[in-house]
C-alpha cells in the first residue's frame, strides 16, 4: 500500500523543524566562497540529472522549481544558500541521465529526495524521508555506518570496505524506486530491502568482492545476482564471434563480427577486412574500414548490447549484438502472464517491405497494451489506439534427428475491422514468434509474405523504445 504523500510531507517537515536530520551538522559543508551551496546526486554519480527546489514541500517538481543547470559528471550542481533551505528533488531521466555505475544512459525514471539542508541526494535519503525516519535510524535498520550515508561513499570505496557495501545497497535500491516520489510502494520496498540485506550478508560471509556483482530484487523479495557490466570493450572482446540480428536485414540473416585486441578477426561485412583496427570509447565503436564504420550503442548488459552500426548516418543498421551461444540458443520462455496487464513496445523496419533492402530505414513504433487474455489495444506511434483480439500459443519445435526439441512462443494479433495502416505494414494481423528473450527485451520473427520473416524488437521500457525509434530515423 502506498502511504499518503501528504502525511509523509507533513512528517518530513516536522522532522526537519525539530532538527532530526543527521545532516544538520553539515549545513556549512560544500558552501562556495560566493555563498552558493554544492549538492550531490548519487547512487553512483548521476550526471545530467535535474534538481528541483521543492519550495511548497509537496514532493513534486513543479513548474519553475527546476534549477537551470543539471548535475555534472560527479553528480554535483550548485544552488543558492536560500534554495538549500528547502527540500530537494533529483529527477533521474531515462535516456538523458547517466550513472557512473553503468555505461551509457539510465533507462529507468526515478526521483531522489533530500530534506532541507541536506546536500546529498541518495536512495537512502529518499527512503528515510518517505518512511518518516532520520538517516541514522534508517542506517541502523541496515546495520550501516550512518556517517557514511552522508558522504560521497563512491569516492571512499578504495579505502573503506563499508563504503563498498553501501554502494552496492545504493545501486540496488535505486532499481526499486518509483518513477516519481508518489509511486513508491513502501511496503513492497521493505520486503525487497530485507531480502537484499540477507543476500549481501551472504556475499560478505563468502568474501565476495561487492564491486563485482549487480543485484536486482523483485517485489516478492527474490534476489537475482549477475556479474557487473565492465564496459563496451570488455563486452565486444569477451564474447567471441558476435551475431547482429537486425530489423534492417532481409532473409533473416545476422551479420557476424569478432573483436580481438584491437583488430577485427572475423567479419561478414564485405567492406570490413580481417585485420582492420578498431577503437572503443565509452559507448561508441569506430572501425578503420573503407568507408569507416561506426557503432553507437544505447544499451549494454553482460548478455547483449543494442546499437546502430553504419558507415552512412542516413542508413543505420539497428542490431542486437549477441554471443554465438545466445544467438544459436533456440528455446525461449515467454509466458502469457508476461503480456497480460502489461504494455510492450514493438519496433520494426518498414523499408524492407516498401523500398528494398538497401533503402534507409523506415522505423515504426507500435504500443501494445494487453488488456486481457484475448484483448489488446494497438496504438501506432502518433495515432489513436484501437482494440484488437490476440492469441498466445506455446509451440514445440521438433528439429532433425539427433537434436533436442525446443519451445518457442507465438503471438497473433488480429486487427479485425480496423482500416489498413501503413504504419502496421498495411497488414490485417501481426504474427510474431520468439527468437530471443532476456528480461524486458525480446526479439521476434514477424511473418511477412512473400519475404522471409524479419526480426522485430519488443521491449517494456517506453523510454528505451522511444529512444530507439527517434535515433533510428534517418
Give the arrangement of secondary structure elements.
Blueprint: H1 5-17, E1 37-41, E2 46-47, E3 50-53, E4 76-79, E5 88-92, E6 98-99, E7 110-114, E8 120-121, H2 123-130, H3 135-141, H4 146-149, H5 153-156, H6 161-173, H7 186-205, E9 213-217, E10 223-227, H8 232-237, E11 241-244, E12 255-260, E13 263-267, E14 278-281, E15 284-287, E16 293-300, E17 304-310, E18 317-323, H9 324-328, E19 343-349, H10 351-354, E20 363-370, E21 375-380, E22 386-397, E23 406-414, E24 429-438, E25 441-446, E26 454-459, H11 462-472
Parallel strand pairs: 1-8
Antiparallel strand pairs: 1-4, 2-6, 3-5, 5-7, 9-10, 11-12, 11-18, 12-13, 14-15, 15-16, 16-17, 17-18, 19-20, 19-26, 20-21, 21-22, 22-23, 23-24, 24-25, 25-26
Helix pairs in contact: 2-3, 6-7
In words, what does this structure look like?
It is globular and about 70 Å long. A hairpin with a 2-residue loop joins strand 14 and strand 15. It has an 8-stranded antiparallel sheet with strand order 13-12-11-18-17-16-15-14. An 8-stranded antiparallel β-barrel has the order 19-20-21-22-23-24-25-26. The longest helix has 20 residues. The chain is built from 11 helices and 26 strands. It has 474 residues and is of the alpha+beta class.
Amino acid at each position: 500500500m502506498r502511504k499518503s504523500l501528504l502525511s509523509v510531507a507533513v512528517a518530513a517537515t516536522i522532522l526537519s523543524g525539530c532538527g532530526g536530520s543527521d545532516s544538520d551538522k553539515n549545513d556549512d559543508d560544500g558552501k562556495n566562497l560566493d555563498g552558493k551551496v554544492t549538492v550531490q546526486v548519487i547512487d553512483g554519480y548521476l550526471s545530467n540529472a535535474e534538481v528541483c527546489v521543492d519550495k511548497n514541500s509537496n514532493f513534486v517538481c513543479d513548474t519553475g522549481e527546476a534549477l537551470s543547470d543539471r548535475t555534472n559528471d560527479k553528480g554535483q550542481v550548485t544552488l543558492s544558500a536560500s534554495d538549500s533551505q528547502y527540500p530537494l528533488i533529483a529527477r533521474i531521466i531515462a535516456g538523458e541521465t547517466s550513472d557512473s555505475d553503468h555505461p551509457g544512459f539510465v533507462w529507468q525514471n526515478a526521483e531522489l529526495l533530500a530534506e532541507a539542508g541536506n546536500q546529498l541526494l541518495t536512495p537512502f535519503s529518499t527512503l528515510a524521508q518517505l518512511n518518516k525516519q532520520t538517516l541514522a535510524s534508517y542506517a541502523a535498520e541496515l546495520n550501516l555506518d550512518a556517517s557514511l550515508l552522508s558522504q560521497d561513499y563512491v569516492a571512499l570505496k578504495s579505502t573503506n570496505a563499508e563504503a563498498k557495501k553501501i554502494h552496492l545497497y545504493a545501486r540496488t535500491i535505486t532499481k526499486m524506486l518509483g518513477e516519481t516520489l508518489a509511486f513508491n510502494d513502501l511496503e513492497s520496498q521493505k520486503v525487497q530491502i530485507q531480502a537484499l540485506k540477507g543476500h549481501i550478508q551472504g556475499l560478505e560471509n563468502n568474501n565476495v568482492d561487492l564491486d563485482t556483482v549487480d543485484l536486482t530484487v523483485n517485489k516478492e523479495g527474490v534476489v537475482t545476482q549477475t556479474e557487473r557490466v565492465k564496459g563496451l570493450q570488455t563486452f565486444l572482446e569477451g564474447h567471441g564471434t558476435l551475431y547482429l540480428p537486425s530489423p534492417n536485414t532481409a532473409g533473416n540473416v545476422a551479420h557476424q563480427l569478432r573483436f580481438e585486441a584491437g583488430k577485427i578477426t572475423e567479419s561478414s561485412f564485405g567492406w570490413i577486412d580481417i585485420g582492420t583496427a578498431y577503437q572503443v570509447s565509452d559507448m561508441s565503436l569506430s572501425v578503420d574500414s573503407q568507408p569507416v564504420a561506426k557503432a553507437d550503442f544505447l544499451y549494454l548488459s553482460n548478455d547483449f548490447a543494442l546499437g546502430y552500426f553504419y558507415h552512412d548516418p542516413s542508413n543505420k543498421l539497428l542490431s542486437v549484438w549477441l554471443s554465438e551461444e545466445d544467438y544459436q540458443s533456440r528455446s525461449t520462455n515467454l509466458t502469457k502472464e508476461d503480456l497480460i496487464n502489461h504494455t510492450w513496445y514493438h519496433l520494426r523496419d518498414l523499408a524492407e517491405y516498401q523500398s528494398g533492402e538497401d533503402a534507409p530505414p523506415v522505423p515504426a513504433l507500435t504500443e501494445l497494451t494487453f488488456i486481457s487474455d484475448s484483448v489488446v489495444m494497438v496504438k501506432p506511434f502518433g495515432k489513436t489506439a484501437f482494440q484488437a483480439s490476440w492469441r498466445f500459443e506455446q509451440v514445440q519445435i521438433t528439429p532433425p534427428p539427433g537434436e533436442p526439441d525446443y519451445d518457442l512462443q507465438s503471438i497473433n494479433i488480429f486487427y479485425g475491422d480496423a482500416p489498413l495502416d501503413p504504419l502496421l505494414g498495411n497488414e490485417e494481423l501481426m504474427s510474431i514468434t520468439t527468437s530471443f528473450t532476456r528480461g524486458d527485451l525480446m526479439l521476434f520473427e514477424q511473418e511477412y509474405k512473400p519475404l522471409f520473416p524479419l526480426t522485430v524488437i519488443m521491449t517494456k521500457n517506453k523510454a528505451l523504445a522511444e529512444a530507439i525509434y527517434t535515433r533510428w530515423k534517418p
